[in-house]
Amino acid sequence: MTKNDLYLGREQTLVKHFILQQYLERFAIIVGTHRNTLTYVDCFSGPWNVRSDDFQDSSFAIALKQLRKAREIHQRQTGRRLKLRAFFLEKNRSAFNKLSLFTKDITDVEIEILNEKLEVSIPAILDFIKKGGKNSFPFIFVDPTGWSGFAMDIIAPLLQVKPGEVLINFMTEHISRFIESPQDETQASFKRLFGSGEFKKRLQGLDKRDREDAIVQEYGNSVRRTGGFKYVTCAIVLHAVENRTHFNLIYATRNPKGVQVFKDTEKKAMSIMQEARGDAHQRKREEKTGQTELFGGSALYRGGPKNLNNKISGYALLTVA
Ligand SMILES: C[S@@+](CC[C@H](N)C(=O)[O-])C[C@H]1O[C@@H](n2cnc3c(N)ncnc32)[C@H](O)[C@@H]1O
């Protein structure tokens, strides 16, 4: 199966994995120059909708591969061997069993796995991070399926880990759709997601893209305040065949170098995304007409619709302290 087959029909995951892959390798190379231990934490590990037998299209396999790559580079160039550690959390029993199968024979990375909900696992995660010692640098990935399970008061202790960086998959489309639901229970869940009900004031009178931008900005601000981060930025991931946002990957750091590396990664990811969207559009046209097109979709797509390109470059720093 080629890489494209693995992500056919789930191009948004291709982009998410590309960003994780590219960013983590650079992160590990840079941070590894002044830290001897890297601690990776995946709070929503999966596997989730994977197609490959060896989990190469899962975030946990991608993360381990990139961290090992960086360790090899360090070893070759400096003779130093970085210590790698990973904590994988997954609440679903059958997904957890697969995760367990994948990790059971790994000996070159210190791994802890837990079959639990994030809501009750914060002490276990913090304990694992602490055991990495003073020279460890943690990177925390939060990749939920909706907006529950990672309320701001729950993840606050993870955001406050210093040193540390966080990447959060914020399901913008889903959240925007329900954020103004009149149901008390839904309102309470959003209040907890953002850490307060203040965000609602910012949304008043806003429509469509402005409203969506304000939602992402408000969430980013809350992450920054709660974690005491200096910088929060994000990468937008669009639907493959529809001209709207799927999700935003929110990245928080205390180091300007991190922002630069993340923005470089985002730039590369945007061309991967536009190519994948071009191919997806072409597939859709071909299905409709029953005719195979001569040129590849990405060649014809030329970077996608103008207004979305503006949007892609529209987010620089989401929020700065
Ligand atoms: C979007 S998937 C993760 C995908 C994975 N990070 C990747 O990119 O390959 C979310 C996963 O989190 C798990 N999950 C959902 N709610 C959870 C919770 N409250 N605590 C821990 N895991 C949860 C789901 O069972 C699912 O496997």
Describe the protein in words:
The protein is an alpha/beta fold and 321 residues long. The protein has one domain: Rossmann fold (3-Layer(aba) Sandwich). Helix content is 51%, strand content 16%. It has an eight-stranded mixed beta sheet with strand order 3-2-1-4-5-7-6-8, with helices on both faces. The longest helix has 34 residues. The chain starts with a helix and ends with a strand.
Give the tags.
Rossmann fold; alpha/beta; about 325 residues; binds S-adenosylmethionine
Task: Describe the SSE topology.
Layout (H helix, E strand, L loop, with lengths): L2 H4 L4 H21 L5 E6 L16 H20 L4 E7 L3 H11 L6 E5 L7 H10 L4 E7 L9 H8 L5 E6 L1 H7 L5 H11 L4 H5 L4 H20 L3 E8 L6 E9 L2 H34 L7 H5 L4 H9 L2 E4 L1
Parallel strand pairs: 1-2, 1-4, 2-3, 4-5
Antiparallel strand pairs: 5-7, 6-7, 6-8
Helix pairs in contact: 2-3, 2-11, 6-10
S-adenosylmethionine binds next to loops.
What would CATH call the homologous superfamily?
Answer: Vaccinia Virus protein VP39
Roughly how many Å is the radius of gyration? 20 Å
Query: Which kinds of small molecule does this entry bind, naming each only once?
Result: S-adenosylmethionine
Mean pLDDT across the residues is 91
